[in-house]
């Protein structure tokens, strides 16, 4: 039997053509098609789920941002300082004494701010998300803030509770995850409700 020589020009030509077709077909054409179709079918999501007010981008529904004012729902803590260019968790194990001390300190601060017992503070108000910019809180973590927000805005807590209920998202497809509230969207709704009263 005659073996095919690897130095044959036909072998090299076929190899180069396969590499070129693969690079252009899958590296360029597929990417352009997927990006184009995604932009056509889901324009808001393809552009980062940006939220605009008065023609100005004020955030994204996918990215947490800090709110320091008592009139707003406070988001989950961020190990990245809410910086999208420095996404990261602390990578500390649950048994790490520094992590335990930080959580205990955060729990005490939240309990003081909200006027509740430390044992009543939901864990997502004291633990950081893996990415550092998780935009959601559990409904329990939002409800514990209702009294403070109502006092700061001078409104009946029932008004805030209705907004929280209206902005509580159910499980994904009714099956996956837990109910959640997007903090930025709720805070914008709080401001809008103040203007409409």
Notes on the protein architecture:
By secondary structure, the chain is mostly helical. It contains seven helices and five strands, in the order ααββαβαααββα. It has helices spanning 9-41, 43-46, 97-114, 139-143, 146-153, 157-166, 183-196; strands at residues 50-53, 56-60, 136-137, 168-169, 180-182. The protein has a three-stranded antiparallel β-sheet with strand order 3-5-4. The protein has a two-stranded antiparallel sheet with strand order 1-2. It starts with 8 loop residues before the first helix and ends with a helix. 20% of the residues are buried. The mean pLDDT is 83.
Summarize the structure.
With 197 residues, this protein is mainly alpha-helical.
Which bin fits the share of residues in helices?
40-55%
How many H/I helical runs?
A: 7
Rounded to the nearest angstrom, the distance between the terminal CA atoms is 90 Å
- Hey, roughly how much beta strand do the residues contain? 5-15%
Shape: elongated
- Describe the largest sheet: 3 strands, antiparallel
Radius of gyration: 25 Å
Poorly predicted segments: none
Quaternary organisation: single chain
The largest beta-sheet arranges its strands as 3-5-4
H-E string: HHEEHEHHHEEH
Mean pLDDT: 83
């Amino acid at each position: 039997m005659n073996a095919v020589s690897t130095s044959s020009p036909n072998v090299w030509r076929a190899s180069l053509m396969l590499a070129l077709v693969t690079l252009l077909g899958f590296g360029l054409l597929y990417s352009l098609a997927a990006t184009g179709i995604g932009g056509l079918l889901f324009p808001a999501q393809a552009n980062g789920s940006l939220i605009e007010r008065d023609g100005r981008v004020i955030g994204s529904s996918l990215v947490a941002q800090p709110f320091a004012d008592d009139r707003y729902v406070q988001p989950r803590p961020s190990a990245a300082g809410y910086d999208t260019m420095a996404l990261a968790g602390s990578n500390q194990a649950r048994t790490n004494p520094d992590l335990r001390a930080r959580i205990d300190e955060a729990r005490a601060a939240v309990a003081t701010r909200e006027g509740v017992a430390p044992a009543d503070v939901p864990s997502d108000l004291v633990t950081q998300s893996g990415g550092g910019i998780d935009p959601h809180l559990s409904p329990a973590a939002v409800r514990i803030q209702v009294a403070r927000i109502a006092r700061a805005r001078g409104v009946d807590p029932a008004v805030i509770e209705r907004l929280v209920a209206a902005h509580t998202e159910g499980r994904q497809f009714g099956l996956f995850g837990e109910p959640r509230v997007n903090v930025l969207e709720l805070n914008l709704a709080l401001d809008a409700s103040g203007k409409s009263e």
